[in-house]
Each structure stands twice: as C-alpha cells, then as structure tokens.
Amino acid sequence: MSGAPKITLATAWLDGCSGCHMSFLDLDERLIELAEKVTIVYSPIVDTKELPAGTDVGILEGSVSTEEDLHKARMFRERCKFLISLGDCAVSGNVPSMRNTYDLDDVFDRAFIENAQAQPQRPSESLPTLLDTAIPIHHAVAVDLFVQGCPPPADAIWFVLTELLAGRTPDPTQVTRFGA
Ligand code: SF4
Fold this sequence. Notes:
By secondary structure, the protein is α/β, with parallel strands linked by helices. Helices cover 30% and strands 21% of the residues. The longest helix is centred in the middle third of the chain and has 13 residues, at 67-79. Residues 16-17, 19-20, 61-62, 87-89, 94-95, 150-151 line the site of iron/sulfur cluster.
C-alpha cells in the first residue's frame, strides 16, 4: 500500500434511479484498489451523516428536482473542491425532466390517482417539495466534469477516477456517451 495521503470522495443521488451508483459498485474488485487511494467520507453506500468541508471530489447522480436536491447540490458545491455530474439525469435532466412539460398538479394526479391500483389519493404529508422543473446539476451549481451515460459504465467511472488520482483532468467522452 502506498504511503501517499488518500483523497476524500463524497457521492449522493438526487433525482435518479441509483443506477449510476450501481455502476460505481460494478467496479467490483477494483473497489479494493480504489480503497487504498480514496476514503469515502459521505455516500449512500457508507454510514455517515455529515459531508465534511474540503472534500476533494464530489459525485452527484440525478437531476435537481426538489428543494432538498437543490440544498444538497449547493452543499456539495460548497464543500467539494471538484464536482462531477455523473450520468445523463445529472448532465441533461434525462428521465426526471420528462415531467417538465406538465403542470405539477397533473403530475401528482397521474402518480397518485390515475395510476393507483388501490386507494387513489394524494398524500397530505411527507411529499418532497418539487421544483417547477427538474434541472441538470449545472443549472443549479457550477460543475467541474460531466460524465454521460445511463448509466455511465463502470469502466468509464474507473477511467475518470484513476485519471483524477493521477493528477490529470479526464475526458470522459473518450469512454462513454449519452444513453450508453
Ligand atoms: S442516468 Fe440512468 S442510471 Fe443514472 S440515475 Fe439517471 S436513469 Fe438512472
């Protein structure tokens, strides 16, 4: 194991299906190699509650669709030195943005009444506060790197991370594309 200090990494999913995180886990045995160089300080895949200030790399999956997403995107931007927008939902809006041409009331009715199998009704509490539209991460905060794909393949995530660890700025378009 190298004696070099580890870099710190944080991840979160906003309005996404978690598929981009599953692709990250598809690094499989390469996760062991990664763990020698990287400490994950905040993520759905580790049990931490606070994103530390000064985190080296932040990765966000999903679009910004709710007030909570917006808060988390801003927190990542504030506390991470380098911010990656991971996957087509984060980069372009993709699936979550399909609701953007509809009135929010119609979206709720479609979800909770028209498509309900039983007890059609809109919940009166615990609903996230939706923004008027679902937006890509970079429409909310500045992003340093965009990694397309739905999801980006594990090899692309590996390429991006190893390039960053080597001190280079990767070009993800070499290894992935929209919808890949
Ligand atoms: S880009 Fe694809 S895999 Fe990733 S969160 Fe969106 S729908 Fe899921």
